[in-house]
Amino acid sequence: MTDKQIIASRIALELNDGDLVNLGIGIPTLVANYVTEDKTITFQAENGIIGLGGLVEDETEIVNAGGMGASILEGGAFIDSATSFSFIRGGHIDVTVLGALEVDQVGSLASWIIPGKKVPGMGGAMDLVTGAKKVIIAMRHTNRGVPKILKQCKLPLTAAHQVNLIVTEMAVMEVRENGLHLLEVHPSYSVEDIVKATEAKLIINDVLPMKGVSDEN
Amino acid sequence: MRSFINKEKFIALLKDGMSIMVGGFLTNGTPEGLIDLLIESNVKNLTIICNDGGYPDKGVGRLVVNNQVKKVIASHIGTNPMIGTLMSEEKLEVELSPQGTLAERIRAYGAGLGGILTPTGLDTLVQEGKQIIEIKGNKYLLEEALGADLALIGGAIADNYGNLKYNKTMRNFNPLMATACEIVVCEPRKIVDKIDPENVITPYPFVDYILVGEYND
User: For B77, which of A61, A81, A120 is closest by C-beta distance?
Assistant: First the structure.
């Protein structure tokens, strides 16, 4: 499995039957490929779809939140942007999965601006992390060896104290009231490897092998 | 009953310095024919309000490339690198508003409200200069309502009365913007005899002009 596949397949296990889920662009989009058939998950797209289906080449009338041609599933609905963000901000989304540039040990994240370099804007990310019941960050553990999981974010925040779970190709970490807990480690790495690649203080008690991927490696 | 207009009449509505809301999400649902006419008119110093900056060759991005824009209000500008470049050279003013906040500010203006209270953007750069209001122990940012001189509505199917419904995900910001501007012009993809009242999304009193001609199917 590639790093991206490891992250996406592990996150798919976090989705429960009946959940309404919003997936961000990039690695988060891949999560849909790993949902098992025993679960019915409804995907929402921030541009106005309840019941988002897969990508469709050359489709121009239905697009996903990345502007790519997509489909809508039977039973789905098209909605305007205010209704879409009523779902998002109003606590009607069970899980959102998003990427990040930095996440810290109190669950704050940075993902929308690198001052002086790149200002893509926040799009719907600030609303999603503020309003979704569960916020899962899908990202590589480091930026070419430089830690992205920090004591405190250095870049301007997308939101403070909103992240619940961080899933990387190396580990699964959960933000709890008393700090960031290391829950699972991919079998290719040791706990020491994770600690070295993480600037944040990790609370380490019972660490398990990463679910969903351990058998295949 | 609304007025059906041709391109000359539309161009006659345009003025330098206007604020213009343009529907669409990554150009899905953006009225490209009306953008063509804005370029043809070459009006300058525009304030453009749109979910995103479009692309350099598509959507509102074309107006930026053609040097007609003074200010952009959007949630995301990452797909149009020229906006970032002009912003860093201080040749273009950019106001980034979280997508759900932008949608709700527009909806509020159209509904006669002064603003909205949202948790989105708390503890971030978005909070700067804004009032924080506490309600039942929860903090919210006061975000002002947003209206404009002109709305350009796309992705719609119009009937002979000027009622609109929208095509798939092209709905997005269009029905919100149609409530929040002095003059509302729609470039429908198609004009039909009548739309079932159950299916009208934007009732005709919101719509001032329907552009007819080569822009409709």
Answer: A120
B87 part of contact set with chain A, CB < 8 Å = yes
Residues 6+ apart with CB under 8 A from A92: A20, A86
Backbone CA torsion sign across A204, A205, A208, A211: negative
Give the active site residues of A: 46
Q: Pick out chain B residues at pLDDT < 50.
A: none
The pLDDT of residue A217 is: 43
pLDDT, one tens digit for every residue, chain A (217 residues) = 999 999 999 999 999 999 999 999 999 999 999 999 999 999 999 999 999 999 999 999 999 999 999 999 999 999 999 999 999 999 999 999 999 999 999 999 999 999 988 899 999 999 999 999 999 999 999 999 999 999 999 999 999 999 999 999 999 999 999 999 999 999 999 999 999 999 999 999 999 999 987 555 4
Read off the DSSP letter of residue B25.
B
Gap between the Cα atoms of B126 and B196, Å rounded:
42
Identify residues of A whose CB sits under 8 angstroms from chain B CBs: 45-49, 60-63, 66-67, 72, 78-82, 84-85, 88-89, 108, 113, 118-127, 130-131, 156-160
Report yes or no on B179 lying in a domain.
Answer: yes
* Residue B70 lies in domain: 3-124+135-211
State the nearest Cα–Cα gap between A168 and chain B, in angstroms. Answer: 25
Structural tokens at position A50: 């309840």
CB A180 within 8 A of CB A151: no
Q: Which helix (H) or strand (E) holds A127?
A: helix A125-131
Write down the ipTM of this complex. Answer: 0.96
C-alpha distances in angstroms, B52 versus A213, B6, B25, B73, B80?
38, 27, 7, 8, 9
Q: Which of B32, B52, B124, B157 to mutate to test the interface with A (most CBs of A within 10 A)?
A: B124
Q: What is the per-residue pLDDT for A129? A: 98
Question: What residue ranges define each of the domains in chain A, with the CATH number in brackets?
Answer: 3-26+91-216 (3.40.1080.10)
Residues 99-158 of B with CB under 8 A from A: 99-101, 103-104, 106-107, 118-126
pTM over 0.90: yes
| List of chain B residues whose C-beta atoms are within 8 Å of the C-beta of residue A81 | 25, 51, 99-100, 103, 172-173, 176
B172 touches chain A (CB under 8 A): yes
Domain count, chain B: 1
